[in-house]
From TrEMBL:
PANTHER family: ALANYL-TRNA EDITING PROTEIN (PTHR43462), ALANYL-TRNA EDITING PROTEIN AARSD1 (PTHR43462:SF1). It comes from [Clostridium] celerecrescens 18A. It is found in: Cytoplasm. One of its GO terms (molecular function) is metal ion binding. One of its GO terms (biological process) is alanyl-tRNA aminoacylation. It comes from the Bacteria. One of its GO terms (cellular component) is cytoplasm. Its cofactor is Zn(2+). Residues 1-235 form the Alanyl-transfer RNA synthetases family profile domain. Gene3D superfamilies: 2.40.30.130, 3.10.310.40, Threonyl-trna Synthetase, Chain A, domain 2 (3.30.980.10). Keywords: Aminoacyl-tRNA synthetase, Ligase, Metal-binding, Zinc. This is Alanyl-tRNA synthetase. InterPro entries: Ala-tRNA-synth_IIc_core, Ala-tRNA-synth_IIc_N, Alanyl-tRNA_Editing_Enzymes, Thr/Ala-tRNA-synth_IIc_edit, Transl_B-barrel_sf, tRNA_SAD.
Amino acid sequence: MEKLYYDRPYVKTFEAVVIDCRPGKDCFFEVFLDRTAFYPEGGGQPADTGSLGEAAVLDVREKPEGIVHITDKPLKAGSRVNGIIDWERRFCHMQNHSGEHLLSGIVHKHYGLDNVGFHMGKDEVTVDFNGILTMEQIEAVETEVNELIWQDIPVLESYPSKEELSCIDYRSKKELTGQVRLIEFPGGDVCACCGTHVITAGEIGFLKVTGMIHYKGGVRVTMLCGRMALEDYRKKQKAVSGISVLLSAKPDHLLEAVDRLKEEGQKKDGKIGRLSKELLERKAGDYPELDTPLLVFESDLSPVQLRQFCTMLYEGKKGSVVLACSGDEGVFQYALGSGQVDMRALSKALNGRLNGRGGGSSLMAQGTFQALQEDIRKAFEEES
């Protein structure tokens, strides 16, 4: 099969003869052609999509018998079809794959780290390195990569002989056999690769690192190039503009505005917490001391508040066992406490009767009941 995506990577449409068409999985079809411009998934780069005649090409895979095009309709063997690549998608892949090579090459050149993982997703590209980088280091790499992009250096493809290859310093994720295809960015990277790339680095547009986390003893870098980077910038700029309006702060002062808002929120939360505790203490004080089980229903209490209220009641000797519930009819959060009885066995029994979930210690158990209020009352009376 003639692989046009290598020989003519900028071909958007082509003609081919259908060699075979077989039924595939899930009512799809597997089509084999005598030539194709559709790139099959491989090396971290997703497969191309598009159409063959009236059939949509949903996926492309490379198998021992050749390139398989997964289509939604059958094609007649021996017929000639016109193939159309989803070029916008393919070009985004080319921009990001070429940008990844430059990023990995510069990281390897300066810090000796290897690219051990590469994934090109719908919204971001991730690159995994087998060592630690600081954000300052990755920003320096980003700057150098973009300088090479703006210099519009050529992207060179070669198929060196075994003897020639032994004299070339190049990157590869695995031991290679057979003919090796090298992609070179002069001054930036030389790497064995089976993917599609731009012809000159300028077509990448620019590369933006969007994040970095520690991952499996190294780091995972997220990045975007070209059109995807531009779309990401537009989306984030809209978000920044919206937040700027909401906070009545200039975009370059948003961090200070958010810090102030966070500090104010923490102060309010502290004050609300203190007032809430005082209110619960007053409520608990209204109950008389009892040596019998106590069941109370309160509205709009959080799990933390429910636990506080239950503790106040049983420590104040308002009941030998206290069950405090809060929620809507049919679903209740509960807190179960006592200084006299082991709560683990009682909570297990109540959970079994009231479609409940939860547990805890001998003093306190918490969870959820999916039951009506009268069913909770009956089960608590009978079990406690």
